[in-house]
Amino acid sequence: MKAKVHVMLKDGVLDPQGEAVRHALKGLGFGGVQGVRQGKVIELDLEDGTSEATIEEMCRKLLANTVIESYRIEVL
Length: 76
Known about the structure:
With 76 residues, the chain is an alpha+beta fold. It has a three-stranded antiparallel sheet with strand order 2-1-3, covered by helices on one side. The chain has helices at residues 16-27, 52-63, and strands at residues 2-9, 39-45, 69-75. It comes from Roseivivax lentus. Its EC number is 6.3.5.3. Its main location: cytoplasm. It holds the Pfam family PurS.
């Protein structure tokens, strides 16, 4: 069983990496980009039958800093 966890900074949290990407895109001539938010995708290879509740617990305890990040689980 496979799952993907998409982790992003919450709205309102400063994203310096996203701002650096936006600035670099502007320097390359892509002036229409008004904002960039950078996140991460974590791919998990799990034993069959692993519950979504277990994946949620993994996210809360380690994979995402829930104070400043939100996450979305995608079971494949």
